[in-house]
Write a structure and sequence with these properties.
Strand order of the largest sheet: 4-3-2-5-6-9-7
Radius of gyration: 21 Å
Number of helices: 12
Strand content: 15-25%
Order of helices and strands: HEHEHEHEHEHEHHEEEHHHH
Structural class: alpha/beta
Helix content: 40-55%
Bound molecules: S-adenosylmethionine
Distance between the termini: 68 Å
Length: 291
């Protein structure tokens, strides 16, 4: 079994199996043991933990995870990687389960139930960048028991998850992430740490999941519909953005009255509202609907 975490051994495995990178799967493999160890440390992976790794590739970070965790489940979409993982790079570990599937189709709740008795799991991954947002939102919205999500993402996406109102990066992703978790950018990672080198800068972000969201709202789904509608039409005022939004069916006067009730300007834009203010606005609009 090859010990991975440097370019030489990765290239050797790739050549041995005549592996060709699939661009459509966002394959950029980590070849820096130091960075991988830092990711595992940032995730705080320990002997009690059950870890879900999304996209193990040839199993480089998976080896580190298997060394530190009690149980690791790795979900990989590319069937060409499965024999490499099973017969070679992960063959000597007893605490690994390899699943050949699209992560967006896997029942992660069932995995958490089977492997961790329904207790919160840790997600650790160098994510395929083409589906970063669907993966993270899918994890949150399906209410998988989660301790934390520690992932490598595009640097700009990490910034978007962390910022607050009044910045250009602030948007629906920031609000969704901050409703479910506390985001912390842990490090930036140079392109030279991957084979092949990605065209974008990368960063590792840790999302520590809340037991209870930091704000209370009567209708979570309506709040996220309102948030999405506000940012879909970013340059419009909140009032115009919301009353134009298909499916929301909220009248202009109701939105105006709700903003007034919150002491906000009638010409305010969505990008100026905090998560707490979106929650309050949602509750007021529900109240308006019920009258
Ligand atoms: N973890 C490895 C590493 O760091 O060297 C590989 C990371 S690479 C950026 C992303 C991995 O995710 C690839 O192995 C790719 O095949 C896999 N992948 C892409 N889309 C996927 C999906 N929908 N479900 C599961 N795995 C996926």
């Amino acid at each position: 079994m090859a010990t991975l975490g440097n370019p030489t051994n990765t290239i050797e495995v790739l050549q041995k199996y005549n592996f060709n990178f699939q661009k459509k799967y966002g394959q950029n493999f980590l070849v820096d043991a130091n960075i991988i160890q830092k990711i595992v440390d940032a995730a705080g992976v320990g002997r009690e933990d059950c870890v879900l790794e999304i996209g193990p590739g040839i199993g480089t970070m998976t080896q580190f995870l298997c060394e530190h965790a009690r149980e690791v489940v790795a979900v990989e979409i590319d069937k060409k990687l499965i024999p490499i993982l099973k017969q070679d790079t992960l063959s000597s570990y007893q605490n690994i389960t390899i699943i050949n599937e699209d992560i967006l189709k896997v029942d992660i709740n069932a995995i958490a139930q089977e492997k961790n008795g329904g207790k919160p799991i840790k997600v650790v991954a160098n994510l395929p960048y083409y589906i970063t947002t669907p993966i993270i939102m899918g994890l949150f919205e399906s209410h998988v028991p989660l301790d934390s999500i520690t992932v490598m993402v595009q640097k700009e996406v990490a910034a978007r998850m962390q910022v607050g109102p009044g910045t250009k990066d602030y948007g629906a992703l920031s609000l969704a992430v901050q409703y479910y978790a506390k985001p912390e950018v842990m490090m930036t990672v140079p392109a030279g740490c991957f084979i092949p080198r990605p065209n974008v800068d990368s960063a590792v972000i840790r999302l520590t999941c809340y037991d209870n969201p930091p704000v209370e709202v009567m209708d979570e789904k309506l709040m996220f519909d309102i948030i999405r509608a506000s940012f879909n039409q970013r340059r419009k005022t909140l009032v115009n953005g919301l009353c134009n939004a298909a499916g929301l069916n909220i009248r202009k006067e109701e939105i105006g009255a709700a903003l007034e009730g919150m002491g906000l300007s009638p010409t305010i834009r969505g990008e100026a509202l905090t998560l707490g203010e979106f929650a309050k606005l949602t509750d007021l609009l529900i109240g308006g609907r019920q009258r």
